[in-house]
Design a protein that fits this description.
By secondary structure, the protein is an alpha+beta fold. It has helices spanning 39-45, 49-57, 61-64, 77-87, 96-107, 118-124, 185-191, 196-208, 215-220, 234-238, 244-248, 262-270, and strands spanning 70-75, 110-112, 126-134, 140-146, 152-153, 157-158, 166-168, 171-176, 227-232, 273-274, 286-290, 293-298, 303-305, 311-313, 321-323, 326-331. The protein has two domains: 39-183, FAS1 domain (Roll), CATH 2.30.180.10; 194-331, FAS1 domain (Roll), CATH 2.30.180.10. The protein has a four-stranded mixed β-sheet with strand order 2-1-8-7. A hairpin with a 2-residue loop joins strand 15 (321-323) and strand 16 (326-331). The radius of gyration is 21 Å and the shape is elongated. Mean pLDDT is 86; it is low at 1-35.
Length: 339
């Protein structure tokens, strides 16, 4: 199924093929070879020497001198210094594995396709886009933008709105204050306020001691999984009419009477986790085996049905949100074990 961004309405994002440029004879951004003023030139002109050094160390200079168009979120020198100090990486002495890692981190700052200007970001409020970085399964990773309060990427990197829309012949550059880490499924859950109740459920299962797995640590661990997460929006829990708490006559998470206790929370969460990275176009009609038992998928109507014949709709504009340890598909109703 085609991936649809929630608010940016980007065109299809193309896979980055290193070293390949356009073959047209035109002089526009689709032309062949090195462009006149590239995003690499922009980085150099704005004193982003650490970014330039990282691009050189990972053989990405030629790539970003290509046709594009690219949207590049360019970290400051201080941001790169922090990354190198925290990781102990030496750009002048990278092992093959470290070079691959740094290259993927850099590509996680690049979106290929029509340029995303700062006005698009601010007006959008929030949404997802695909980067040129890839996860272990070969799928392109996602970025989550939340610009309803500032301009933040994946809940960690702030876009400097005084240093945006720096245009090149092959794209646009926006300055950010932090190197954007390769995301996990936990990154998307914890950074998106629309999934805060799901995070509260994960945390409560952990804190209650009833969790089958250490949920928060697992979803944030980029070496875990891979998992597919069917992630209920807040309203799926809390809507006073249709939310699961109202449906069950419960007031919230807790061990008291009239509360959703830890053991039941754990049983519910397991039904939203599949031990595989299943993209939306890989979802087949029939039985889906989750960590908590079987549910039924309808790939035509894009629904999930639990053992109580309750139907959850997969939100088609919020699928294939890809992290290093799995993929997230947003759903509108909580899946329940047998009542």
């Amino acid at each position: 199924m085609k991936i649809i961004s929630k608010t940016f309405k980007l065109l299809t994002v193309f896979l980055l093929v290193l070293g390949v440029t356009g073959c047209s004879d035109d002089d526009d951004n689709n032309g062949p070879g090195v462009q006149a003023t590239t995003v690499v030139d922009i980085a150099a002109a704005n004193g982003l020497t650490s970014l330039a050094a990282a691009l050189q160390a990972t053989d990405l200079v030629t790539t970003l001198q290509g046709a594009g168009p690219f949207t590049v979120f360019a970290p400051t020198n201080d941001a790169f210094d922090t990354l190198l100090n925290d990781t102990g990486l030496d750009l002048n002495n990278l092992t093959d594995a470290q070079e691959d890692l740094v290259r993927n981190i850099l590509l996680n700052h690049v979106i290929i396709g029509p340029e995303i200007m700062s006005s698009d970001l601010v007006n959008a409020g929030d949404g997802y886009a695909k980067t040129a970085a890839v996860g272990p399964n070969g799928e392109n990773l996602s970025l989550y933008f939340n610009t309803s309060n500032g301009a933040v990427i994946n809940g960690q990197s702030n876009i400097d709105l005084n240093n945006v829309d720096i245009t090149a012949t092959n794209g646009v550059v926006h300055i950010v204050d932090t190197v954007i880490a390769l995301p996990t499924i936990g990154t998307f859950a914890t950074s998106n306020p629309a999934l805060s109740t799901l995070v509260a459920a994960l945390s409560y299962a952990d804190d209650s001691g009833a969790g089958t797995v250490p949920y928060i640590n697992t979803v944030l661990d980029d070496t875990a999984g891979p998992f597919t997460v069917f992630a209920p929006v807040n309203a799926a829990f809390t809507d006073p009419t249709n939310g699961v708490l109202a449906e069950l006559g419960l007031s919230g998470f807790g061990e008291g009477e009239g509360q959703l206790n830890g053991a039941t929370t754990d049983a519910v969460l397991l039904l939203h986790l599949v031990s595989a990275n299943v993209q939306s176009d890989q979802l087949a009609s029939g039985t889906v085996t989750t960590l908590g038992g079987d549910i039924t998928a309808d790939a035509t109507n894009f629904t999930l049905t639990d053992s109580n014949d309750r139907v959850s709709n997969i939100v088609t504009s919020l699928v294939d949100i890809q992290g290093m340890n799995g993929v997230v598909h947003v759903i509108d109703k909580v899946i329940l074990p047998g009542l």
